[in-house]
């Protein structure tokens, strides 16, 4: 079974509160996420955004998956998988420069482990609203910071930094929540074989090419 939080955020090309950024958060899900489902989420967000603005400068959808059980949690080294789908009207804003957590006065950069660039067809509502240039990228995040009060933020390659895509804490499964020390050991690296196995199960159909 899958435990993931599904979020999306968009920076709109009009005067909205808090620097023009709108953030929406969806309930926790238990099912795997495919490229087709992320396409559908983009299409729905484009339709929703069209109701309030002619277009948006950029959009980012984030989905993260916790290990399925305590054994996998130990196998990954107390890391979780994070998927970011970012779309922009400007090609030079991608690939993303940085995905990071800000919590307790700390800034924790997340490690990108796979990335794929795509071009959205001209004339589609997604391309009209958000742009033609898209990047799907996977990161690994230490469990501890994702469970604390803070923010998950993106820096685009140019133009936009501090783009908030999630207000932490996340919602871990019970066996992770019960861990009194959910932080990986200092300097520890995730077990990439275990992480990739988790991503292949939770995100079937995505290509795991290098960042």
Fold and architecture overview:
The structure is a single chain. The strands form 2 sheets. The protein has a 6-stranded antiparallel beta sheet with strand order 2-1-3-4-8-7. The longest helix is centred in the N-terminal third of the chain and has 16 residues, at about 35-50. The chain has 7 helices and 10 strands. The model is unreliable at about 1-25 (pLDDT under 50). With about 210 residues, it is an alpha+beta fold. It has helices at about 15-20, 35-50, 70-75, 125-130, 145, 175, 190-200, and strands at about 5-10, 20-25, 55-65, 80-90, 100-105, 105-110, 110-120, 135-140, 150-155, 165-170. It has one domain (about 5-200). Helices cover about 25% and strands about 35% of the residues.
């Amino acid at each position: 079974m899958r435990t993931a939080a599904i979020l999306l955020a968009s920076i709109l090309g009009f005067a909205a509160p808090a620097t023009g950024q709108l953030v929406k958060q969806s309930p926790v899900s238990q099912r795997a996420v495919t490229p087709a489902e992320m396409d559908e989420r983009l299409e729905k967000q484009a339709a929703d955004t069209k109701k309030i603005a002619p277009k948006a400068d950029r959009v980012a959808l984030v989905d993260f998956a916790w290990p399925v059980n305590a054994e996998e949690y130990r196998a990954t080294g107390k890391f979780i998988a994070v998927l970011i789908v970012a779309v922009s009207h400007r090609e030079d804003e991608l690939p993303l420069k940085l995905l990071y957590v800000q919590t307790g006065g700390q800034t924790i950069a997340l490690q990108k482990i796979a990335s794929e660039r795509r071009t959205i067809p001209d004339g589609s509502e997604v391309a009209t609203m958000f742009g033609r240039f898209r990047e799907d990228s996977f990161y690994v995040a230490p469990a501890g910071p994702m469970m604390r009060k803070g923010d998950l933020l993106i820096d685009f390659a140019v133009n936009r930094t501090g783009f908030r895509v999630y207000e932490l804490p996340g919602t871990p499964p019970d066996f992770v929540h019960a861990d009194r020390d959910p932080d990986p050991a200092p300097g520890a690296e995730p077990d990439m074989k275990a992480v990739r196995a988790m991503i292949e199960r939770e995100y079937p159909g995505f290509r795991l090419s290098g960042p």
